Amino acid sequence: MKRADISAYGIPQDVIACVEAPDVGAAEGGPIGPDEVVFDVLAFPINPADIGFCTGGYRLRPPLPATPGAECVGRVIAVGDEINHVRAGDLVINLQRENWAQRRRVRGADAVPLPAGIDIKQAAMVRINPPTALLLLSDFVTLAPGEWVIQNVANSAVGRLVIMLARRQGLRTLNVVRRESLFGELAALGADACIVDGDDLPARARDATGGVNIRLGLDAVSGAATGRLAACVADEGHVVTYGSMSGEDPKVDRSNFVYRGVNLGGFMLGRHMARRDAAAIRAIYSELGGDIAAGRLHAPVDCIYPIEEIKAAVAHAQQGGRNGKILVTPNGAI
Predict the structure, then answer these.
(1) Angle in degrees, 0-180, between the axes of helices 201-209 and 224-232, rounded to the nearest 10
(2) pLDDT for 242-259, tens place per residue?
């Protein structure tokens, strides 16, 4: 069985390699635990968190050698006697890590089924970004149709999904980006308004929305950008930080908290998913999988590599100017 392992923490393409590893078994009806699922990995994306994992800059630093991989999609080849929510032949995602491999054996609760007709490439990217966008819109403030959400990094994978999901929910999005050339592309996804970030962002946000109250701001830049979003939201509004492209901590004038009652929160998918039971988690992915299968949600893919070319794949994933995610197929073309 092929697997991608890092032997040290460092430059990803230097420390990762495609290696031979022991097969997890159950290829042809072999022994399997009653609460286990075995699946062949069809595809996995290379995410920023995976790159951070390889460099040692991510929050998880397991003993080496270690296998990266925050998400994947696979096809079930065996299930234990106690499993009744998936069966052989189903497409699944895995809620656990270490997915850069040809085959995985996981606890039944961690194998979540997806619709049979879903595109494999889109399914490979469903575990993290779509629920992140969905829960950012739901878990901090209850918004009514017609209300506005402001977000920075609107051209990111999560930002694009926020636009599509907000439109589906009847919400309006004000999208902050770094260059005006992105306006048309985001408008085609359903963005209601786009503006370029800058020191006068609050004034231009008021102009773009007609001065209505904005109760939710989504921040993935951090640093001074968090403060600019805080100045855009209404009194007692919410600003949620879920990333830090700047590499800085949020910088927000305390007057936003003391005098205006603005709420500053943080989001991590695992923490918010942990508040839900297995049935609720499966319901989230069933909803998102249905939207993806129907073409209502989608994310661009730039290039696909075989697992044997994992070094080239991770190098490509770090380059600018890409038109989407880099995917890897451990078991052949999809």
Answers:
(1) 40
(2) 999 898 999 999 999 999
Number of domains in the chain: 2
Mode of pairing for the β-strands spanning 91-94 and 111-113: antiparallel
For residues 4 and 39, give the distance between their C-alpha atoms in angstroms, rounded to a whole number: 17
Which of 9, 58, 259, 305 is the catalytic position? 58
DSSP state for residue 154 in the 8-state scheme = T
Q: What is the pLDDT of residue 251?
A: 96
* Encoded tokens for 299: 């994310």
Residues 124 and 156 in one domain: no
Confirm whether 285 is a catalytic residue: no
Tell me the residue range of the domain where 292 lies.
2-128+278-329
**96, 148: one domain:** no
User: Tell me: the pLDDT tens digits for 169-227?
Assistant: 999 999 999 999 999 999 999 999 999 999 999 999 999 999 999 999 999 999 999 99
CATH number at residue 144: 3.40.50.720
